[in-house]
Amino acid sequence: MSRKNESSWQDTASDWLVSIIVAVALAFCIRTFLVEPYMVSGSSMYPSLHNRERLVVDKLSYFITDPVKGEIIVFRYPKDQTRDFIKRVIAVAGDTIEMRNGKVLVNGNVIEENYIWKDDPKGKNSSDFRKTVVPNGTIFVLGDNRNNSEDSRFKDVDFVPLKLVKGRALFCFWPTDRIRKIVPDSGIVKK
Description:
Oligomer: single chain
Mean pLDDT: 85
Helix content: 10-25%
Order of helices and strands: HEEHEEEEEEEEEEE
Number of strands: 13
Low-confidence stretches: none
Distance between the termini: 85 Å
């Protein structure tokens, strides 16, 4: 083998190695700071999201701003931060939240929630939640399937610290017959 062929082979291998390293680093940065795929596990967000749907989650926005009411977010479960949960933001820091007789009140106003599952065979959720102000640096989240959701009503989740929020759901890309943009819905205030 001549020196010229050996040098050419080494240059090609070196180029490939650099390309692979750059691609891996770029993929890592995109997944860490920009967007991440996420698979819905369970029915706590039904009918808005279905079990095993795959979503794209925007991670960049929350470096700039905090979550807003109505957004569907992914966050690390406070009691076991290796697990991710997906829920809807109902109230943010400084808001007063209360639930009584199956109604959600934010700042004293009943929220008409068209996104919750109304045909639940268990009946309408009548769980109550004491009137409380959402602490600074946290949000209050609920699942759209209220009778099958571990959310801020429960001690293990409670008010979710902003530092545990990973991102907001942008769109569903799988299965292909359900491709759609995930639109925030904060409900309609009834006075």
